[in-house]
Amino acid sequence: MPAPPSLSRHERINRADWEREATSFEERHHRALARHGAMGWGIYHLPERRLRMLGEVAGKDVLELGCGAALWSIALAKARARVVGLDLSPRRLEQARANQRKARTFFPLLEASAEKVPLPDSSFDLIFCDYGAMTFADPYRTVPECARLLRPGGQLTFATWTPLQALCHDRERERLVPRLLRPYFGLHRLGSKGSVEFQLPYGEWVRLFRENGLAVERLEEPRPAPRARSSFLAPEEEPWTRSWPADAIWSVRKERDPPSPSARRRQAKR
Ligand SMILES: C[S@@+](CC[C@H](N)C(=O)[O-])C[C@H]1O[C@@H](n2cnc3c(N)ncnc32)[C@H](O)[C@@H]1O
Q: pTM for the whole thing?
């Protein structure tokens, strides 16, 4: 299916990549992603029932940004959340529809980019993803979009790589190595050909959240259990994650009475 003309270059690259990779991603990771009632965080699928990042979801309006095959969203819909699943890739959304039929659990699935969501302001109480669009879309676009879509007091929670992972990831060999391969300052867009990911220095994430009226509540960098294995890593990469954190799980909350973005920028300059 051709990409909509409105997409930017990195959105087109990533859409094409997920169209190509949809089947093999499912083959490699479905079993792991389905563990813990399909509510697991990060590359080791640490159970939500232990981390409790989301809190009570029953009765909440929830958006999954980059839902893929929508296992997480189906689990939350079963927990009585009112869910919308959004993804850029038509093939991933086909997988989501197939899983909805299997689970007999239905909710809206939207083909769109997380950088420009065609939904009204203040539509959601919770926006979340587990290595979804917050990994593959530009945070300078997605963070303001999430702030717009959240109601006052609403929560944005997402798992993605740590900045440290970005510094130590050899993109040619697709391996984590115990060496710093690129500068920390200026971290932003990573990769260009097959797929594009985004990362920011910690201070820049916090500044971006604050500029958009989002207060940081938690940042988890979980350490995997000694014998845990990840379907996302080669065996020789596992020692890396015993010494350094690969996953960052951020949780931020929209202020109840936030100043306007321009007032906030003026405050930050003082
Ligand atoms: C690693 S998958 C994770 C999804 C989900 N957690 C799962 O278990 O399948 C990343 C997903 O993000 C989607 N994605 C990438 N860029 C996006 C964007 N700009 N907007 C929305 N979705 C995007 C991809 O199509 C893909 O389905």
A: 0.95
